DUF1062 domain-containing protein
Amino acid sequence: MSHTLTVQWTIEPQSAPRPWLACNRCGGHRPFVCSGKTRLNANGRRLDAWLIYRCAVCEDTWNRPIFERRNVASVAPDVLAALQSNDPVWVRQAAFDIEGLRQCTDRIEDLADSNVERHVLGGSAGCARLEIVLVVRQASSLRVDRLLSAELALSRARLSKLETKGRLTLLPESRKALQRPIRDGSRIVLDLTAEDDRAEIARRARGGP
Ligand SMILES: [Zn+2]
């Protein structure tokens, strides 16, 4: 019998990351929420495209530039069609494009409301070692500790203690593993030998009854 319970977590974020920006209307820095709408402006042969966001407090708009002054001939036809029709698949991809958002602001808030699909790859709930393989198709700034805290119902203080004791590691290995953003293909390894509630933790990790 294997001594490791290996589970795969496929993480599908539900809410797009929220850029924090200075709001012109209500003042101060506010989170902005993607409206799902795009705006296209033609100026002769030149096109501007934006993704529209709204201030979470006063709903004032912020136009996030997708491209500016682009020659219409250089815009891929499927992108143009998506922009003209507010294509939800395209909009979702743009809304989750964290690297693109980073060009507009340093502060991006990633909500922890991810849908996590669990799949047992091997081992049983009685195992003292738990290995979680992450599948993250959309770049995310969600931190490892926030994910584990939400999905395993463990406090961040407890997770931090496990890490200090060397009972929680991230592979490929990195320092301050808990503060890292989740990455596709990385593995979280937990040694639960000393945890009285390891069966409960394993149950949460693999899901089901
Ligand atoms: Zn506002």
About this structure: The radius of gyration is 21 Å. The first helix runs from residue 77 to 85.
